[in-house]
Structures are given as structure tokens and as C-alpha cells.
Design brief:
The structure is a single chain. This protein folds into two domains: 4-104, 2-Layer Sandwich (Nucleotidyltransferase, domain 5); 126-289, Exopolyphosphatase. Domain 2 (Nucleotidyltransferase, domain 5). It has helices at residues 35-38, 44-55, 69-77, 82-94, 107-124, 157-167, 169-187, 206-214, 224-245, 255-270, 298-306; strands at residues 4-9, 13-20, 24-27, 32-33, 62-67, 99-104, 133-137, 142-146, 149-153, 201-205, 221-223, 278-281. Strands 1, 2, 3, 4, 5 and 6 form a six-stranded mixed β-sheet that branches. A six-stranded mixed β-sheet has the order 9-8-7-10-12-11, sandwiched between helices. With 309 residues, it is of the alpha/beta class. The longest helix is centred in the last third of the chain and has 22 residues, at 224-245. The chain is 46% helix and 19% strand. A hairpin with a 2-residue loop joins strand 8 (142-146) and strand 9.
Length: 309
């Protein structure tokens, strides 16, 4: 296999890219709706497939479609019915216009692919020459990997962002901090030992990496306590800015609070790690002798596995 096309069906939208060895990633123009939202109507699944076919540059190319926490959460809450997923899979199998397979990733599968991709990027860029751990936050879930320990947690940062839009910075962040702390404590109780040992290296990717970059610690390998302090200071700064702006702050998009909520979730996740370990916040990695940076993700990890890299 020389080229892999993967569709990442996230909580906000679906994006498609082709991956070719050694390090070429080509995003396919345009994005598709979030799959779990498309499946809310009887015809939405087939319409989504038709949109995917229209974007394919090579109809003979095999396509791997993977859905993550957006669909997992929609199924568990009852917002999307399993029967709708079954109908979608049947329509995909029957289609003669595309050669595609669909898989709903478990949280653990998502975490393992993310970890594989992040470790690969850090290794070829010279940031790490041994085992590394992972912290990753997406719109609906966060992943923690260290050795054989693989955990996925429904941190629901997008829901936190919506709280900010509805309640404002102060009330929204306080409410979200309480709910995300409770969600994490149910899966990783604070009575357990710290994750990791002295000197361990962790990699922060996806929305958590973006929060680190906003907090001024992107691209740096820093001690865990310093990372926690920087993220907390960023949250405090954003709260202060909103207070100074007055009560009539125009909140244009969901991105208004997403980095703040990512920081709050990140602080709680980082508090679980050995304080004598280190972490690198980076959304993308500049690959030697390549014009295209690599962005660690479950999709990149799956592609690397399929391409045997």
C-alpha cells in the first residue's frame, strides 16, 4: 500500500486527508459535516456518503472512515440511534462509487493511535529517543497514555465552551472546572499514585497543545508544575480581559472559550502526572527534509500503521 485516505469524523466536522510515505499529508479540499449530526435524519447518512464521493479525487482509492467521541457520545446519550449507524454502514457497503470501510473507534483505540503518531513525530524530530507518554484533548474526550496504561475520558471541552458562551467567563469556567474534575476523578481517582516516574516525558497534542501554545509554552519541554502554572495563569488572564471588556462582550464563535476550557481540563490532567516528569506542547511537528509538517492525531497514527511506518 502506497497511499492511505482517512476520514476523521470528529465532534464538529469530518475532514479527509491522504497519507503517502515517508511524510506526505495532503488534506482534501473542503470538510464534511459531523457524521453523528448527519445521522440524525433518515437520509443524512446517504447524503454524507454522496458528499464524500464528490470530494474523492481517485474513486479507486481505498478509504478508511473513523468516528470518535462525537459519535460515541451521541450513541450513549441516545441522540443518535444505533440503527442509524447500521443503515449508514449498509449504504456504504452497497455503494459502487467508493471503496470505503467504517469503524467507530473506542476511546482506547483513539488513544493508542494518537500516541503512536505523537511518539513517531517526536522521535523523527529529535525530541525523544525513548518511550513517551501522551495527553490529548479533543472536543469531546481526552486521552492519557503511559506505558500499558491507556485511558479515555469524556472531558467534553465543547460543552464547557458552550457554558462560557451562555454564562460568561467567570461562571462558565467555574462550572466547567467542577464538572470536568468530577468526570476525571471517576476514571482516575486522586487517591491513585501519580502516572509516570521521575524524568518521564509526555507529549501534549490536539486542543491541549493549542492551549499550551496560547499560554506561551508551545514547543518547549518543561516540568509539569511549570505547565500547570502557565495554563492557570492563562485562564486568569482571560477572565481578567473579559471583566475589563465589560458586560457587552461579543462572542462570535465557539472558539471564544475553547482554549480556556482546554486549559482547565489540561490542568486537571497534568495534576495526575508525576510532578518530576516533563511535557512538550506541540500541535504540529516540522519534519526534516519535508515541506509538510505532521500533526499528531489518531488519523495519522492509523495511516502510519497501515503504511507500516
Amino acid at each position: 500500500m502506497t497511499t492511505v485516505t482517512i476520514v476523521d469524523c470528529g465532534s464538529g466536522y469530518s475532514r479527509m486527508s491522504t497519507y503517502s510515505p515517508p511524510h506526505t499529508v495532503t488534506p482534501i479540499d473542503g470538510i464534511l459535516p459531523a457524521l453523528h449530526k448527519a445521522l440524525l435524519t433518515d437520509t443524512g447518512g446517504r447524503e454524507w456518503i454522496n458528499m464524500l464521493v464528490e470530494k474523492m479525487t481517485d474513486p479507486k482509492q481505498k478509504v478508511y472512515i473513523g468516528a470518535t467521541a462525537g459519535l460515541r457520545d451521541a450513541l450513549s446519550s441516545g441522540a443518535t440511534a444505533q440503527s442509524s449507524v447500521d443503515v449508514f454502514e449498509a449504504a456504504l457497503a452497497e455503494s459502487s462509487a467508493i471503496d470505503a470501510t467504517f469503524h467507530l473507534l473506542t476511546g482506547e483505540e483513539e488513544a493508542k493511535f494518537e500516541h503512536f503518531s505523537a511518539a513517531y513525530c517526536a522521535r523523527i524530530c529529535g525530541f525523544a529517543d525513548g518511550p513517551v507518554g501522551l495527553l490529548s484533548s479533543g472536543g469531546m474526550s481526552s486521552q492519557l497514555v503511559h506505558g500499558d496504561r491507556v485511558v479515555s475520558i469524556p472531558t467534553k471541552i465543547k460543552c464547557g465552551n458552550q457554558l462560557g458562551l451562555e454564562l460568561g467567563m467567570e461562571k462558565g469556567t467555574n462550572y466547567y472546572r467542577s464538572t470536568v474534575t468530577s468526570a476525571i476523578d471517576k476514571i482516575l481517582p486522586t487517591t491513585q499514585y501519580f502516572v509516570g516516574t521521575d524524568g518521564d516525558m509526555f507529549l501534549a497534542i490536539e486542543m491541549l497543545a493549542a492551549a499550551g501554545e496560547k499560554a506561551g509554552i508551545g514547543g518547549q519541554i518543561i516540568p509539569i508544575p511549570e505547565a500547570i502554572e502557565a495554563l492557570e495563569e492563562y485562564v486568569i488572564m482571560c477572565k481578567k480581559e473579559e471583566v475589563e471588556a465589560g458586560p457587552y462582550v461579543e462572542r462570535k464563535t465557539w472558539r471564544s472559550y475553547v482554549h480556556v476550557m482546554s486549559s482547565i481540563a489540561g490542568v486537571k490532567l497534568l495534576s495526575l502526572l508525576n510532578p518530576n516528569s516533563k511535557i512538550l506542547f506541540s500541535r504540529t511537528y516540522s519534519i526534516p527534509e519535508s515541506d509538510t509538517p505532521l500533526k499528531p492525531s489518531w488519523a495519522l497514527g492509523k495511516a502510519l500503521k497501515m503504511l507500516n511506518q
